[in-house]
Amino acid sequence: MSTPEDRVRGFPAFGAQGGRGQFARSWWGRAWISAMEDTALDLRQLKQGRKYAAAGRVGPITVSPGRIAAVVDDQEGQYRTEVRLAELTGDEWDRFLDRVASRAGHLAALLDRDMPHDLVEAADDAGVHLLPGIGDLDPDCDCPGWELPCRHAAALSFQASWLLDADPFVLLLMRGKGERELLDELQRRNAPRFVRTGDDDVDAERAYAGEPGPLPDLAAFTPTGGPTVPAAPGIPAEAFALLVANAGQMAGALLASQPKLTRKQDAVRLAATRPETADRLRPAGNGEDFDRAVLAWRHGGRAGLDVLETVWTPPSQAMGRARAAFAEVVDGPGEGLDVERNHCTVHGTGVQVRLGKDGLWYPYRDQWPAGPPEADPGALFAALLG
């Protein structure tokens, strides 16, 4: 059962962050920021809000169903600001909790403070949209500004991404239910209704009410040898170690609820994580493309490979932020920037950054992946052009 403390959570002020504040390290935190930024009409307010958040101008944050609120300090005074998000309906909660309860890995991930992609996708398939989209975040502030969001609401939203990074239950609380309430409902969904005790099905509560019987005497059991594995002529011993390691990786991927890979993607993954297999897996006549894909996986995993292979059209505001970041890095009109869909290419340099669907920017040089992704395109431009 939910308690008042479970439905209202308070968080102390973050204080000033050293250097430039980095926001939204998790993919769901980046989705939150994108929902705010892609709706904004004044990029100057976002820039000022980012500075306010990094400077620690946001006071203690309160999260409750449907809203997140704080007082933000400004040169002109202190302003009460909040960002509202619609709560899920009872029917939507039922469908979402049924999806979580159907996969043990989903609950384990949430308890580990992770939000798996396939959990959100499964909820979307059920018509339940956990993550906010464009227009879902409703900022409000008692400052005289008219912008949506104003710099105070933007600062609160940027700091909220830190809370979401650390605990996805913060998002679920804004959607209407606290952690304890969610866990209690999931426990009820997973509890066995009946236990078979021989001839009849007995209610589980009655079956587990009594004291457990004594354990058997282990000395009465005689251990037997394990199964034997037949020899495999012609297969080198080191191949078995590789197969075992690969099986472990695949099991880990399944436990993490990652989507299934194609044969090509799996070959790239294996070559990236086990370099000794690359020569065997590299296809004849197409080795350069394969090596490029392997490098993309090493820098960014499956998301990095998707950025290499997929071109898509992001919101215009996102590419506008890339132009603004580029203008801050480059002094003078000597270099220009070509923006085509999710690719931003610097004239005559071979330097390019690509926006992934995960909200991160991936660096490229001469069409080859050039390093791990960053949330800030300006940092990549500075590193690639420096």
Topology of helices and strands:
Layout lengths: L3 H4 L1 E3 L15 H11 L5 H12 L6 E4 L2 E8 L2 E8 L5 H12 L2 H8 L5 H9 L12 E4 L9 H16 L2 H6 L4 H12 L3 E3 L4 E3 H4 L29 H19 L7 H11 L4 H4 L5 H23 L6 H14 L7 E4 L2 E4 L4 E5 L5 E5 L2 E2 L7 H9 L1
Antiparallel strand pairs: 1-2, 2-3, 3-4, 4-5, 6-7, 8-9, 9-10, 10-11, 11-12
Helix pairs in contact: 2-7, 3-7, 4-9, 12-14, 15-16
How would a textbook summarize the main sheet? 5 strands, antiparallel
* Alpha plus pi helix count: 16
How many β strands by DSSP? Answer: 12
Backbone CA Rg: 26 Å
* Oligomer status: single chain
Element order: H for helix, E for strand: HEHHEEEHHHEHHHEEHHHHHHEEEEEH
- The strand order across the widest sheet is 1-2-3-4-5
Shape: flat
Low-confidence stretches: none
Proportion in β-strands: 5-15%
Q: How far apart, in Å, are the first and last alpha carbons?
A: 57 Å
Give a quick set of tags describing it:
386 residues; 5-stranded antiparallel β-sheet; 16 helices
Description:
The structure is a single chain. The protein has 386 residues and is α+β, with helices and mostly antiparallel strands. Helices cover 45% and strands 14% of the residues. Strands 1-2-3-4-5 form a five-stranded antiparallel beta sheet. Strand 6 and strand 7 form a beta hairpin. The mean pLDDT is 80.
Question: Summarize this, please?
Answer:
This protein is α+β, with helices and mostly antiparallel strands. The chain has 16 helices and twelve strands.
